[in-house]
Design goal:
alpha+beta, 2 domains, six-stranded antiparallel β-sheet, binds zinc ion
Length: 230
Amino acid sequence: MCNVENSASRFSSPPHRHLPLPARWVVAAAILAEGRRGFAPAQPGRERGAAILAEGTGAGSRERHRIRAAMGRIGLQLRATLENITRLRAEGEDFRWYLKLKCGNCGEVSEKWQYLRLMDSAPLKGGRGSATMVQKCKLCSRENSIDILSQTIKPYNAEDSEKFKTIVEFECRGLEPVDFQPQAGFAAEGAESGTPFNDINLLEKDWNDYDEKTKESVGIYEVTHKFVKC
Ligand SMILES: [Zn+2]
């Protein structure tokens, strides 16, 4: 109980700081802390974990919901305006899917962009196979993993222009993508000519070139994305 109160006093959000601690709030936090095997005790620099513990009555059900939400398949949908171009795709086993990943256990989101590649494989603890990425959460120490589902990788075609289309799905076991940054490594081809365009970089969300065969400009514009549950 002391630990819980200490961690709560470090919770620095101004609207909460001056409130007295309701007893049920402390009890709920303590029950929650008890129930979370593997959750590291609050330490300096772990305010965020304390804040999650301190959400108050009902935090237990929210916690369970968050864990469930972090499991299962999540699809990455792309939308772009294509000009005289088709078959925009993530090319090769070494294509880097730059993502920000959230821990489904404690809600921590990685600060830096991390990338997943089809070619990568890391073992899961206890001989439970492997995953594209296995990562221990810096905040709560939970071992989480995520897989790229290779058979779900799809090209974005001329007829998809200006519509959202799922171009890849991830199998999430504790690591959930919450943001995506397209960078280098895309390929596409001329819609009529089939002229190949390789190593397209979409970091600026716009790309253009010139198709020598058709004497037309080609381009990919206003690249956006969203995530969907599959
Ligand atoms: Zn975590």
